[in-house]
């Protein structure tokens, strides 16, 4: 089995309620899940699957309580742990031909140089749930996404089974979720995410999507970067206000040798924009173009100096306020998923280091929009896993929500019906420096 080592694994935490119900093992779910996982493994994905305990754990806990009247928290937890291990062995049997031979039951024992595309985990020890184990896997194996599968579509502001006015929540920060679930663990707790796991995920600034595990079309949308139903839990509320408040002042990211506002940073960005404008003018020769995610409009200004009728759109009001007065008339406030231009408007639509900042649910729509408003070329420079120089010279940027290998983006572009991905058609620096994808409108 061949899989993409450049793309980080996806951790899927499977709630026990999906694996077993009051009526027995949920074979219908398992059959569909088996096909779903194998489909994406064939496309180069890698997965960690963590099995929950669910009704099996509750049945044994209730039996113990009925016989002796009460049980210690540790005994309750251990019953839950062993229930998850039984469920994990069922998953291991289903995926025996593609899964690692070891079920992870001790998370201190790391896997070394494993080659299988699928690894299965179970509960570890008292004090937390398999949500916590999923967070440990994401931390230790470089996953940037945990999908938490349960029998609910969203996280709600209160229990929807009790309160008819419970509201679904699309986005949460870890701090906001902590206010909902608290900070204390108890065996059998009914919460969208274990309170102890919340604290660890918050510490390591991970992203988790809580969604209904039985909606496989929705799961495909999550994997494919299309719009989906589910609650996204992130370290920060990353939206237009985040970029206004944080990104352009450099408190969360920046080059190690100088922030964008410093003299050295300005010199570096000036050189980069001159190189980009010269590159575009020489190789693509557009009469007009649109820079999506243009920031302060520096590239737009440079392109206009080269005689190109250039325009820009930017989601950050703060960036637009910082733009030079001479270029402001050519800039607009807009979101990449809803570009305020007619179809086939520009010879060239380009983005530089934009798509990796998008949530998964916006990727497909963003690509569609950039192709829609172009009449000839679309060029995306994207920070990918291959661009290792970024890790040397750039501090960690927590607005990088979608860091994948080049293979992920190539597949997204090749699958689009309205554009063709051009191979080796323009000069670009080695993959360790940059990843550039040039498309031509069909």
Automatic annotation (TrEMBL):
Keyword Nucleotide-binding carried by entry: yes
Pathway where this protein functions: Pyrimidine metabolism; CTP biosynthesis via de novo pathway; UDP from UMP (UMPK route): step 1/1
Domain (Methyltransferase type): residue spans on this chain: 290-375
GO biological-process terms attached to the record: UDP biosynthetic process
Enzyme Commission number, as recorded: 2.7.4.22
Segments forming domain Aspartate/glutamate/uridylate kinase: 10-212
The family this protein is said to belong to: Belongs to the UMP kinase family.
Name of this protein: UMP kinase
Species, as recorded: Candidatus Roizmanbacteria bacterium GW2011_GWA2_37_7
